[in-house]
Structure formats: structure tokens, C-alpha cells
């Protein structure tokens, strides 16, 4: 016999089930990319022919004056900054720097190393670190095999791993277990003291707080001899979170070498030619944009295709346009969502969320892969196994999805290969069945045991709903599923099971340009809309375009390369002008009381002072004039 409480609950659920049971093609679609005419190249005054020679010997390679200066600084153990735009030979210079360190005796073989990702013995005492896996992979591919283990992300160098800690709520006095991704290498458990040189790749996107963690994890007693080399491009965007250590180092007077000679071979690339036109500050009117659509893929120099929207569209109409166009590109192989990337300035409205849903939905349909509905508190999200995602600011892949035994909330629908990423089930038979599975009630129960089973589920659900009012309970935080996530390039699988953590997990087919920084992709789709005009400034457009290695497709409004080129985040063309703008912004933040001690770099002054005290390097030239700053540095 059922109790009155159970009967009332069953009646309520039956009423809900019964209530549920009762119950524009765009003409402005982008054309497919095709070959167009040769581009009239913008040739800067500082253009040079790249030497046609292999880098086998650092002393015989014909480096230009600033490349050689950087190598000389490295050879003598000085800390410095190396900056240069795309096509100025930064990668070649980094190879020369590493070779100079190895041949000068500054980098010695390390022995007895106890580190999760570094060889135990024999590896040089150099580590080359970056914020993203892609940044690290790019430099790793240019170095010899014996150095490739020394190229790792900053998070890998710090041996980040999941930690579980009891956390007490100050208001209730209750404790619960909280999972955090934290570094195993800290000031208390430092990295190997044999490390003599740290090269920070793509340093323009490394925020100060991450630098602080890195320098704290390097033994303090080695700081007096440690060499730090920052590599980056001051023309790119600042990092997403906090200020960049790269621009802080230059602002404080660290020796800075600027690579300002652009090689002709670089400008033969349509992608880099467009990038340098943007950096020049010279506008590109709509009538000239097609002159920059060039296909040189047959000769390995790349391809640019620019589609200008002929009519104004609302953001919703533009999303509809993409829902028709992107699947067509996927079906014919012009866009591979597993390797290529879509970049756009915003997340919302016409942004990454909508574009990700379009791609993920079509990909799941093409693969006939089941989509999982996952409850995360009051929200729902949708993923499949094998999904490309962004987790903890890094690209990752979902390796498994399982139901969470700690969850007693509303039952999600069963995984379905006909459900889209908005939760719409396109198979009506499956939809009806999903209602039955979610409630356990068909509306025609005659078997008493089935009613009792359903009633038991109702009791559990009602109990869980009551438990959800207590924010400290595991049930309140539990999501309906446990998602296994593997960051790209890391041999660790993270199980994500709380509502908060899963809500921080996002699809990774479309990214904001900020989040793409430091990465490089074979093919980039740079897609914008008029609603994003406030975000379209020169550094953002330049950064988005230079993420493409081989092919770049741009879909934009007619005035993007006029409005965007005219606007800069930090005004100026030269380093001194950029630094002055940064200093003004930094001083304004501090004067308004919005400064944060985590935004101030630790120990940076030690490397600057030691470099200044070192005797001049042969062939050294005057460092660029850097403005003074009133910002106080953390000792």
C-alpha cells in the first residue's frame, strides 16, 4: 500500500506528464572560399630578404644585428625581453639563443632531477615554458629531440594537479570538500635548483599572478644567478586575466631587444602581409579588401579569403546564417572542427556560445553520437563523449560521461543522437520515451510494484530537492553526471562532477580571440558581426589573424578594417609609445584604488638590477627608452 504522501506525489507527477503531453533562409550567406587575384603587398621600409640557410651552426648563421644582440645577451647569462611582430624571425632567434646557451657552458646537464615532466638526468638546465600547449608545441617542434622534454606549459612545470580540501562555511560552520586545480611546486616544494635559464614563450599572454607562482616555485637561493628571457609580441592582446608580465618587464626597464626587420619571405604569406598592413595603421576600405584575398596554398605560402557582408543583419539573423553555412563547410571538408578553429570577439548573442552549439550539434549528428543532457543545479548543459572543450583555460577532450550516484535531483533525459545542444529532441518517439524515463510513470500504471517503485523515486527526488536548499551538502553541489576531461598535451584525466565545475566547462570549437592567444591553428575562421564593434580594435584583429598558420577565412562588416585599425587598446606603434600608454593605464588603476597585489610582479627587479650591473655585451646597442612608472613592485 502506498502512503498518502506517496499517492499525492504520484498524482502531482502524473499531472505534470499530462500537461507536457498536451502540449527563414538568409539571402546574405557567405560564399564558399575560392581563389582570387594576387595581392598588392604592403612593403614596409624595414623589409629584408631572409637568409636561405639551415640553422646548423649558431656562429655561421647570418643573423641580423638585433637577432645577434639577443643571442649575445643570452650567451653571457643576462635576463632580457625579446619582442617582434609576426615574420621578424623570433623562432629562428630562439633557436639561436638555445644553441648559444648550450655551447657557452651556461646550460649544463642536470642530474638527479625529481620532477614529474623533466628527465631524471642528462637534460640541459634550460626550461622553455608557455601559457598554452600550442605555444609550447610550436617552439618544441623547432628544437632538437634532446631539448623537447624541456619545453612544457607553465602549469606542467608547476605540476598542477587536482587537490581536495575541507572548506568551512563561515556562516553555517559546516564543512564540505572542495576540489581545486593547484600547483604541487611552490615555495615550500620548489622546482629543481639545477635550472639556470627560464625562457617564457608567448610571454605577452602570461598574467602577473601566474608569473608570481612560477618565480615562487623556483628556489629563492638560485634567483641571484637565474636567467629569465621573455619572448613575445607587444602588438598582441594583453592576457585575459590580469596584466601581462611581458609588458611589466619592459615598463620596469628590463633590457629589451626588438626584432623590427620583416623578411620578404614572410610577406609572401598572404596572412602575414595582411597582418603587417594592420600594424601599419593604414586603413583598408571595403573596396580594397578583396585585393587581400589571395590563394598561395599551392606554393605553401598560405591563403586568405575575406567575405564582406553586403547587408546588415541582426545578431539572430547572423546566427541563423551561420547555422546554414558552417554545416555546409563541414560536410564538404572546407572546415574540420577537430583541427580548425572559429574565432570571434564575444561569447554571447552572436558569439562563441551560439557558434559552438551549431558546430557541436552538426558534428554529433554526422557522427551519430549520443548527446547527454546534464543537470548542473538550475541549469542544463549538453555534451558528448569525444567533445572538444575548454577547461581551466586549456583545450581538452571529454573522454567519458557517466551518471553521478551522488545526484538525486530531477532526472535528465537519456542520451540521444537526435537531441541538439539546446535540448530539443527531434525524434518524437524518443521524446515521449524520455518523459517516461525521467518520471518512471507512463500514465497507465496498473501494477502496484511499478507504482511503489515510482513512488520511491519520487521520495528520493523530494528529499534531494529539500537537500538542495542546503548549499553545503554534497547533493546540493552534485551534477547529474561525472565528466572525464583530458587536457590536450597532459597525461592526466580530471573527473568533473560538481555543478560549478561543469558550468565552467565550455565547448571548444569556437573561442574568443583573447582565449586563442598563444595558439596557432592550421585554418582559422575569423567571424565577426556589427554588434561586436566595441571590441574590434587593432590588437584584437592582428592577434586573431596571426593565429592562422596556413588558411584564414574572414567574415566581417564592410568597415571592420577601418574602425578596428583606427582603435588601439594601448595606443602607439613603437615600444616606448606602447609602454607609455600601459603606464598611464596602470597608474590610473592604482590611483583609483583598483590595484591588486597579485597584479604586481614578484622579484622582477632582481633580474633587471643584475642585468644592468653586468658588463656590456659585444655588439650590444642602446636599449629602447622606457618610461618610468610609479607602480611599486613586490619584493
Task: Outline the structure in words.
Helix content is 34%, strand content 19%. The chain contains 22 helices and 23 strands. The strands form six sheets. The protein has a six-stranded parallel beta sheet with strand order 4-3-7-8-2-9, with helices on both faces. A hairpin with a 2-residue loop joins strand 14 (372-376) and strand 15 (379-383). Helix 1 packs across helix 15 (448-467). The longest helix has 20 residues, at 448-467.
Q: Unreliable segments (pLDDT under 50, ≥5 consecutive)?
A: 5-28, 33-44, 47-58, 464-475, 615-635
Q: Largest beta sheet: what is the strand line-up?
A: 4-3-7-8-2-9
Q: How helix-rich are the residues, as a percent range?
A: 25-40%
Instruction: Report the portion of residues in β strands.
Output: 15-25%
Please give the alpha-carbon distance between the first and last residues: 73 Å
Q: What do the pLDDT scores average to?
A: 80
Count of helical regions: 22
Overall geometric form: globular
Instruction: Please give the radius of gyration in angstroms.
Output: 28 Å
- Secondary structure category: alpha/beta
Biggest beta sheet summary: 6 strands, parallel
Question: How many strands?
Answer: 23
Condensed summary:
The protein is an alpha/beta fold. Helix content is 34%, strand content 19%.
Features:
single chain, 635 residues, alpha/beta, 6-stranded parallel sheet, 6-stranded mixed sheet, 23 strands, disordered C terminus
